[in-house]
Amino acid sequence: MKKILFFVFSMLFSFSVFCEDKKRDEIILTPDTSLIDIPTAGVIDYSNFNLKTRFYTNGGVLTHLNVGILQNINLGASFMVDNLIGSNSPVKMVRPEMQLKFRFYDGGYYIPALALGYDGQGYYYDRSVKKYMQKGKGLYLVGSKELFFPGFMTSAGFNIPDYDEGYLYSFLGFNYNMDDKLNLMLEFDNMFHSDYPSRINAGVRINVNSNFFVDVAFRNIGKNEKFPNGWDNKTERIVQFNTSFYLGNF
User: Fold this and answer.
1) Which domains are seen in the chain, by residue range?
2) Which of 83, 108, 134, 230 is 20 to 30 A from 115 (CA-CA)?
C-alpha cells in the first residue's frame, strides 16, 4: 500500500509541477472549494480543472472531477471504489454522483460570498439497501467570509440531503491559511437533528505548490458507534490529493 500511495503521490506532484510551469502566469493559488466534507463558497475559475483523490477506510478510493464550465459555475462528478488498495475483496465501484455549484454573489464588506449547489456524494455505501450511511449534502446553500483576522475563513450553510424526509441540516467550518503553506481545518457537519448523527472533522492542508495540495484529516472524531445497518461508525483517518490545472478555452 505504501508503494502505491508513493507512486500516486509522485505522479500527481510531477503533473502539477508540469502544469504550473506551463501556465505559471495564468494560475494562482487554487481556491478552497471545499474543506474535508463540507463545501465552501469558493469555485475554480472558468476553463480550470480540479482533481481530488481521497483514500479512505479499508483501502477505498474516492475521486472527484470538477470543471469550471462558466464563470462562477462548476460542474463535477465523483466515483468511489471500495477495497481498491490492500487485500480486502471484492473490489467494487459505487455508483457515480454529480456535483454542481453556482457562486451567485462574490461577497461584500458585511455579506459573505454565497453559493448554491448540489452534491450527491455520500460515504459508507450499503449495497443491500442502496443507501449511504453518511448522506451527501444534497441541495445546499453556503456562505464564506474572512473573519476576525487575515487568513481565517468561516463557511456556514444549510442543506437538504434527503428529499423524502425533507429535513433541513446545517454545517459550519473554519480554516486558517498560514502564509499559503498550511491550512488548518475544522468543521461541524450534519447539525440540527438528533436522529441523524452529527460529526466533527479536523485536518491540515499542505500547499505543496500553487495547484497541488495534500490533506491529512480525521473524520467523525470521538465516535465509536454503529450505523443503523450495524457497520462501525468510528473515527476515520483519510488522506486527500488535490491538483488543479488550466484546460484552455472551450
Assistant:
1) 2-245 (2.40.160.40)
2) 134
CB 242 within 8 A of CB 50: yes
| 83 phi/psi in degrees, rounded to 5 | 65, 25
- Segment 153-210, tens digit of pLDDT: 999 999 998 877 778 999 999 999 998 899 999 999 988 776 677 899 999 999 998 8
**pLDDT tens-digit readout, 196-229:** 778 999 999 999 988 899 999 999 999 888 888 8
> Residue 229: CB partners within 8 Å, gap ≥ 6?
126, 128, 129, 133
